[in-house]
Amino acid sequence: MAARSFWKGYLKLSLVTCPVAMAPATSEAEKIRFHTLNKATGNRVEAIYVDAEDGKPVADDDQARGYEKDAGQFVVLEEDELRAVALKSTRTIEIESFVPADSVGWLWYDKPHFLTPDDPVGEEAYAVIREAMAATGTVGLSRVVLYRRERPVMLEPRGQGIVLWTLHYADEVRPPERYFEDIDGAADPELLKLISRLIDRRTRKWDDELVEDPMQASLKALIEAKKKRQRPPKAKKPAKEAPTNVVNIMDALKKSLAAEERGGRPRR
Q: Rounded to 5 degrees, what are φ and ψ at 173?
């Protein structure tokens, strides 16, 4: 059964257009979520907007968007004014340009989505766009309204499909040089050999299990015990924090490798 989509529209490149559907590539549906309750009554607590000065609730129709120009002074923007500067179409992904696939750094990536053809008639146009990007080693750039705001997006060919990534805007990404430029880049060749051996011993094929969330299993066990009015499982003792004192790196690496070769991890 095909997965449900949350967005439908059109993919367009010049005069080539095809209907498409989009679904998030990731999901938090399986995550345990909590509600905020009134501890005294057990009832859920609702969040409401109130006037910051008089404390009275503000109805939806009376709420407006404002930009603070000075402390406590706002420029109010009407909805029709905001619509005037928005995209003309909220349902068309028009590819505006292409860039080499390896030129978009990972810092720009936000959320992945699966973009699929939404009509058998449009599959050929979809396939042509996908294969052309794959053949030229490029990705397409566009803009689309998602999650109630306009976002820059990147279209990446992936197998038989296309992955659409929302991207961060230029003013959202901090240049890494500002943080890394003062770090000494030199590494001792002997230390490099030792740590490369350590990395080699710990290298394995990618598996979903490597990024499983152990907290979810613990929360489920706790909730089940509470539902059955059983004694909650004992909390695990927190792991000892790594020592903060500086040690001889060469000795530490040699001990680490020796422990790995014995089939275990080094003790802290």
A: -100, 125
What is the CA angle 132-137-140, rounded to 5? 65
Left, alpha or beta for 42 (phi > 0: left; psi -120 to 50: alpha)?
left
- Indicate the class that CATH gives domain 7-26+85-172: mainly beta
The Cα 79–Cα 65 span in angstroms is 8
SS (H, E, C) 187-242: CCHHHHHHHHHHHHHHCCCCCHHHHCCHHHHHHHHHHHHHHCCCCCCCCCCCCCCC
Return the number of other C-beta atoms located less than 10 Å from residue 177's C-beta: 8
pTM: 0.73
Integer Cα distance of 20 and 91 in angstroms? 10
Token duo for residue 136: 């030229």
Beta bridge partner(s), residue 155 = 140, 164
Strand-pairing partners, residue 65, are 77
Domain boundaries, the chain: 7-26+85-172, 187-203+210-261
pLDDT in tens, 231-243: 666 666 665 655 5
Query: Residue 82 is which amino acid?
Result: L
Spatial CB neighbours of 102, under 8 Å, sequence gap ≥ 6? 137
* Cβ neighbours of residue 146 closer than 8 Å, sequence gap 6 or more: 7, 153, 166
Angstrom distance (rounded) from CA 2 to CA 138: 28
